[in-house]
Design brief:
Elements: E1 3-5, E2 15-17, H1 28-48, H2 50-58, H3 61-66, H4 72-94, H5 99-105, H6 107-127, H7 131-139, H8 147-153, H9 156-167, H10 169-180, E3 195-201, E4 204-209, E5 213-217, H11 224-234, E6 240-244, H12 248-259, E7 261-263, E8 268-270, E9 275-278, H13 305-318, H14 328-347, H15 352-359, H16 366-375, H17 383-390, H18 397-410, H19 417-422, H20 435-441, E10 444-448, H21 462-482, E11 499-504, H22 506-509, H23 515-525, E12 527-533, H24 536-542, H25 545-553, E13 555-560, H26 566-576, E14 578-587, E15 597-606, H27 610-614, E16 620-624, E17 631-634, H28 642-649
Parallel strand pairs: 5-12, 5-13, 6-10, 6-11, 9-10, 11-12
Antiparallel strand pairs: 1-2, 3-4, 7-8, 13-16, 14-15, 16-17
Helix pairs in contact: 1-6, 4-5, 4-6, 11-12, 13-14, 13-21, 14-16, 14-17, 14-18, 16-17, 20-21, 21-23, 23-25, 24-25
Length: 650
């Protein structure tokens, strides 16, 4: 229908049919839905107030109001009517039975009863089918974290008491030493430097320690980008690396990370380092803010045989011949060839495009073998790598084709001139990035790539994303292991402030072979992974069930609304648990008197049902920190955070 706009309140209220017909554009129920939304906005405001919070925490109002088949409002209205009639009767008796006089004197009471009854009816009409009712119901369910538990384990004071000493031992130790000096000016660490704020529960700020990784589940349009990803990037206390298949995260956060922002409500200060964009496929278009500007080559460090071997294993895994592949035996052979090509190019200070040329045919790889011999002293075991390449000349053609498939596939993306041009730098170029310095300086790296093809055809820049993750994960490991021991026991070696890797739908980009090791080592060494996926099956498909389970069990978990995977919903239901409930049943027969009889029975039932978890409204999520009951959290949209207001004021 074509419409035009004239005067009105909301823009969609100003739409009118061009035909000028009598048929309304909206039905009456649609109009009433707007009124109900306004009522629920008032209800949310009241719940967030001090009085509303106290009543919710210290009375059973929310439980009685939100449970299924609740009759609380109906009983309240009946009670009010009876109260009004009783008042009328009392006045009637006091005036000697003169009904007109009694009615006039009781009019204020009757008007008040009628008004309150109508308000209750309007409220119930808006509340009974609303998402607020579901949220209220979940917030009081047995098995969900209580206000006391949230304050004890996840509140700001709890972070300062338990998380800061573990995550920032060096900063805390220096502050204590400075405080002990006469006239000292200690700089004490803050909660925002050691933990990640995810929202509010029971009006208490909820923080997740940067020492634990975070696994986020949220289907498309569930709000994970605006409520989790963008805040996680902007609020990273130190270095931050972000993967994405779109440039929207870069557009929303680059200026904030580059210039730095302050949250006036908490005093937190974020960002302020250099920003690097890795976008060889040009997803960011011509926008200067999202254009590729990162001087990096996958050959960096490959003049070290150990690094070359690690890079080769990553490329083999990306090529589909790694762990869990049906062609794993060919992957072992391909890995040997790839590591030799990488090493030959690195020691000869050649660009990665040379590896692409060598990968086109085994005959081309002879040049790499010659370069290894040229730069390697006699008797060195690395000469075996040259022999491996030289042996291709005498291999059976069918076997050669199978083994060389992984080599061609590993460098196939370099067939794109645009991609090749972005990384066609020699590995000893003085203008290349310094990953360790970037981590120490708190820089930000955006890694963009097109989604990989699920059909197996075509290639993307995901293999370079995996290599970049390897590069910066190794830089973090080296920095942590080379740092001085800190902490009360003198046994903590970690990056301060911690680094953060925000892996937004990494499974849609490429399989990262180092993910499992990063999860098991990262938290203790001062870098945190925030993994954002649409469902757990994405991770299971790209890795395997055992690896995904290991990652899942070593993370704090977050689930947004809209998840429909049965296994995931059942898992969350198990974490909330079961509770005992008493049911009273009434019956009547002639031998039980006029009121009949009743019986009670106690039974165990699920505290939450799968459909309730799946229907979580936008802006709400279930958070389950390790060794804690699940927490119902109201997430804060990035535009509602204090640092966004600071940006707008600028």
């Amino acid at each position: 229908m074509t419409v035009h706009v004239d005067g009105g309140s909301d823009w969609y209220d100003r739409l009118r049919p061009d035909s000028g017909g009598s048929a309304p554009l909206y039905g009456s129920e649609e109009i009433r839905s707007d009124s109900r939304r306004r009522v629920m906005a008032w209800w949310r405001g009241w719940e967030d107030s001090a009085a509303g919070s106290w009543i919710a925490e210290h009375t059973g109002l929310l439980g009685a109001l939100s449970r299924e088949n609740s009759r609380l409002v109906r009983h309240a209205v009946v009670g009010l009517v009876l109260f009004g009639l009783f008042g009328l009767l009392v006045v009637y008796m006091l005036v000697g039975g003169d009904f007109p006089i009694a009615f006039l004197l009781s009019m204020p009471l009757l008007v008040a009863v009628f008004s309150v009854s109508m308000l209750l009816w309007v409220f119930w009409d808006a509340y009974r089918d609303s998402s607020e009712r579901l949220v209220d119901r979940l917030s009081v369910r047995p098995g969900m974290a209580t206000r006391r538990q949230v304050a004890e384990r996840l509140g700001t004071r709890a972070v300062l008491r338990t998380v800061v000493p573990a995550v920032l031992p060096g900063m805390l130790e220096r502050a204590r030493i400075e405080a002990g000096r006469r006239g000292g000016s200690p700089v004490w660490p803050h909660a925002w430097q050691a933990a990640m704020p995810v929202g509010y529960s029971h009006r208490i700020a909820v923080w997740l320690s940067d020492e634990m990784h975070v696994y986020v589940l949220g289907p498309a349009r569930s709000g994970k980008t605006v409520c989790v990803v963008i805040p996680a990037v902007v609020e990273a206390p130190g270095f931050c690396l972000v993967t994405s298949t779109r440039s929207d995260v870069v557009s929303a956060t680059r200026t904030l990370r580059e210039n730095g922002v302050e949250d006036a409500s908490t005093g937190a200060r974020y960002g302020g380092g250099r920003v690097h964009v890795f976008d060889p496929e040009g997803l960011g278009g011509s926008d200067p803010a999202t254009r590729h500007n990162m001087h990096w080559t996958p050959l960096m460090g490959c003049d070290d045989p150990t690094t070359a071997m690690r890079r080769a294993q990553t490329l083999v895994g990306v090529g589909g011949l790694g762990q869990g592949s049906n062609n794993r035996e060919w992957g072992v052979s391909a890995g040997g060839y790839i590591q030799a090509l990488l090493y030959a190019a690195a020691i000869s200070n050649l660009p990665v495009s040379k590896c692409y040329e060598w990968s086109l045919s085994p005959q081309n790889a002879r040049e790499a073998a010659d370069l290894i011999r040229m730069h390697t002293p006699a008797g060195d075991s690395i000469l075996q790598w040259a022999d491996t390449l030289q042996g291709l000349e005498h291999m059976d053609a069918r076997q050669l084709s199978s083994e060389w498939f992984g080599v061609r596939n590993a460098f196939a993306i370099l067939a794109d001139p645009k991609v090749r041009r972005c990384m066609n730098l020699p590995p000893h170029d003085p203008g290349l990035i310094d990953p360790k310095r970037m981590v120490m300086d708190g820089d930000t790296v955006y890694v963009l790539s097109r989604p990989k093809s699920q059909a197996g055809g075509g290639v993307n820049a995901g293999l370079f994303a995996a290599l970049l993750l390897d590069t910066f994960q190794e830089a973090c490991q080296d920095l942590a292991l080379s740092s001085a021991a800190k902490g009360s026991g003198g046994n903590l070696r970690k990056i301060e402030p911690p680094a953060r890797f925000v892996l937004d739908e990494l499974s849609n980009i490429e399989t990262w072979g180092g993910l499992r090791n990063a999860v098991t080592q990262g938290g203790g060494n001062g870098y945190q992974l925030v993994m954002v996926e649409q469902d757990r099956n994405q991770m299971i498909r790209d890795y395997d069930r055992e690896t995904e389970a290991t990652i899942w069990s070593n993370c704090n978990r977050i689930m947004l609304g809209g998840v429909t995977d049965r296994d995931s919903l059942e898992w969350w239901g198990m974490q909330v648990g079961r509770h005992e409930t008493t049911r009273r049943e009434y019956s009547w027969n002639p031998g039980q008197g006029p009121l009949g009889g009743f019986s009670e029975r106690t039974q165990s039932e699920e505290s939450v049902l799968p459909y309730e978890l799946s229907q979580l409204p936008h802006g709400w999520m279930i958070v389950q920190p390790v060794r804690m009951p699940p927490v119902l959290v109201h997430a804060v949209h990035f535009m509602d955070r204090g640092w966004w207001k600071d940006k707008e004021e600028r």
